Amino acid sequence: MSGEWLALVESDGRAYLLQRGAGEVRVRGLGRFNVDDALGDVVPGDSLVIGQKTLRVVNPGLPEARRAMKRRAQVILAKDAGYLISRMGIGVGSKVLEGGHGSAGLAMHLASVIGGSGKLISVENRPEHASVGRENMETLREILPEFPEWHLLESDLTSCTEEVSALTEHLDAVILDLAEPWNVVGDISKLLRPGGRLGCYCPTSIQLEKSWEACESAGLHIEWAGEVIERRWSKASRGGVRPGNQPVGHTAFLLIAAEQLVAEE
What 3-state DSSP class applies to 54? Predict the structure, then answer.
C-alpha cells in the first residue's frame, strides 16, 4: 500500500524507517535504493536483504521511530524521558509545554503518551534544530495510531508566553531543557493548573541549583531532584548474566517541582 510505513530492524536493534511510494532514497547505513523495489511484497514478520544486511520487517512504533530519528541536537534519553513523564503524572489528554524542542527526542515520548486528546506545545529558538525536530514529529504522526494537537513555536520561551496562553488556558506540565531554565520559570509557572508540575533537565549541578532556587522563588514545591543511572546487563559467554561494561551514567540532573505539597513516596 503506497504511503505505508515499515521499519527494518537489524539483529542489534538498529532500525530504519521506509515509506512505500517514496521512490529512490538514500538511507545512512543501507545506501541508495528504490523503496518499492527493495520492499517488494514483504509484510511485517518477513525478512529481506539490502546490500549485505539481513533485516526484519516490523510495523513501526515509538521505539523504532526513536532509533531511526534524525538528530542534530543531543536528545533526552528514554531513561530520563520516561522518569519525567511518570513522576510528573503526564498521561492521556495532558496539556504539556516543552521548552527546548531540539530533535524532538522528548516530544516523541510525550506525543506517544498523551494521545489524540492531548495537547503538546514545543518551543525552539534555533531554526536548524526546529527543522529536524519537525521532520521527526511529522514522521511519528503518520506512524502512531493517535497523535496530539501539536504546535511548534519557533521562538524564545522568554518572549512567547502570550502565544502559549493563546493556545491553552492552562498546562498540566512543563518540561524545560534549556541552558538557563531559571530565566523562564517565574513566567511559565503561572500557566500551570493548580497541582501542575514543572520539570527541569539540567546537565550540570550549577544549572540544578539555579533552577531549584528559581522554582522556590516562584512559589513551587520541590518534589524531587536527582539523576537516573542506567546499568544494562548482558549474557556472559560462559553462561549466566552480568552487568554490562558500558553503563549509562550521568546525562542530567532532573528537577520536578509542583504547586502543591505532595507526600514523598
Answer: strand
97, 174 in Cβ contact below 8 A?
yes
pLDDT for 111-133, tens place per residue?
999 999 999 999 999 999 999 99
Centre a 10 Å sphere on the Cβ of residue 142 and count the other Cβ atoms it contains: 14
Q: What is the domain partition of the chain in residue ranges?
A: 5-60, 67-258
CB of 103 closer than 8 Å to CB of 137:
no
Nearest Cα neighbor of 75 from 110, 108, 107, 105 is: 105
Length of the chain: 265
User: pLDDT tens, 222-261?
Assistant: 999 999 998 888 888 888 998 887 777 789 999 999 986 5
Q: Which fold has domain 67-258?
A: Rossmann fold (3.40.50)
CB 150 within 8 A of CB 120: yes
E strands along the chain, which residues?
Answer: 5-9, 15-19, 24-27, 31-34, 47-50, 53-58, 95-99, 119-123, 149-153, 171-176, 192-202, 221-226, 233-235, 241-243, 253-258
Domain 5-60 sits in CATH at 3.10.330.20
Q: How many CB atoms lie within 10 A of CB 92?
A: 12
Q: State the number of CA atoms in the 13 A half-sphere of 157 facing the CB.
A: 26
In sequence order, which residues have a C-beta less than 8 Å from that of residue 238 and are 6 or more positions away? none
Grid cell at residue 73 = 541536537
